[in-house]
Amino acid sequence: MELRHLRYFVAVAEELHFGRAAERLHMAQPPLSQQIKQLEAELGFALFERTTRQVALTPAGERYLERTRAVLLAVDQAGAEAKRVSTGEVGRVALGFIGSATYSLLPELARGLRDSFADIEFDFKGEMLTPDQEAALRDGSIDVAILRTPVTDGALEVEVVRRESLVVALPVGHRLAEQESVRVKELKGEPFISYPSEHRSVLHDAVQALCRRAGFRPRKVAQVAETSTMVVFVAAGLGVAVLPESVTALSLPGVAFRPVADRVTVDLAIGWHPERLTPAAELVVDHLRAVFGEREG
Q1: What is the span of the domain harbouring residue 62?
Q2: Do residues 176 and 261 both lie within one domain?
Q3: What is the Cα–Cα distance from 196 to 200, expressed in whole angstroms?
Q4: What integer pLDDT is reported at residue 296 of this predicted model?
């Protein structure tokens, strides 16, 4: 038995006329009659009562029609759902965010994605360092990343979507907090709170390079992986931190953010593994491109 036999049966059952059913199915009447006879033979009972003047469903045929319609509806729904999966309208996408983007971008992007893709299940992972995101993209634990460049893994696709200025996070009452902006050289001798050096943090390396150009090496008092913890440590008066401007979205009593006067920026990018990009993840990447494009515009 094939699905076409069921469709033939439904057409005859609804028309109760082999000629009209054949026209509806765009086929000749004799082959249609033969297919229905084959179906009845396979089932072992009659579906129709035939006379020279009319065609009627048998009681068994009426019940079979009810079940057949349900089967064909389920098949059609399965095909429609599979098609939506193939085009990315249905699926699951895991996104990883660097620390500063966790607070400035994640809430808005999460709302926009859920509104735009109601049938995609999202898993948002915040406070990820770029090296950890690279590893997660490779092993498939995340599908798309909002990260910092440079990225060391040449197998990943990366698109820069924004350039951010840097700010200095200072304890309220700090001598430099009274200024409108801070030059990096003014931080010489200050205790620094930074991202871990052993994790190859992009921001850690960028801050180290800035300080070297200003003629000093930063005095580290703490290294932490979470941006929120860094800001808490600053609020506690343990030191200062140089961070992307987007971290100012993390409002915390006891912290003053001041722009870095030196003209320097860090890149924010979308990253993914091309061999692991599902249709749903591809839709998300396109959505993020559009969102950041509107922001830049």
Answers
A1: 3-86
A2: yes
A3: 7
A4: 58
Q: Residue 226: left if φ>0, alpha if ψ -120 to 50, beta else—which one?
A: beta
Same domain, 287 and 152: yes
CATH number at residue 192: 3.40.190.10
Helix/strand/coil percentages in the chain, nearest 5: 50, 25, 30
Dist CA 89 CA 175 (whole Å): 54
Q: Same domain, yes or no, for 156 and 284?
A: yes
Helices (H), the chain: 3-15, 18-25, 29-43, 59-86, 99-104, 106-116, 130-139, 202-213, 227-235, 279-296
Q: Are 62 and 202 members of one domain? A: no
Residue 163 · residue 268 · CB < 8 Å:
yes
Co-location of 150 and 202 in the same domain: no
Overall number of domains in the chain: 3
Crossing angle for the helix pair 279-296 and 106-116, to the nearest 10 degrees: 120
Contacts of 240 (CB under 8 A, 6+ apart): 168, 169, 170, 171, 174, 176, 187, 190, 191, 192, 193, 234
Q: Residue 147's pLDDT is what?
A: 93
Q: Are residues 246 and 278 in the same domain?
A: no
Q: Which of 274, 267, 270 is nearest to 156 (CA)?
A: 274
Nearest one of 67, 162, 174, 72 to 109, comparing CA atoms: 162
Do 141 and 284 belong to one domain?
A: yes
What residues of the chain score a pLDDT lower than 50? 297
Here the tokens at position 108 are 């808005």
For residues 156 and 134, the answer to whether their CB atoms sit within 8 Å is yes
Burial string for 166-184 (b: 16+ CB within 10 Å, else e) reads: bbbbbbeebebbebeebeb
Maximum C-alpha span of the chain: 105
178 and 226 co-located in one domain = yes
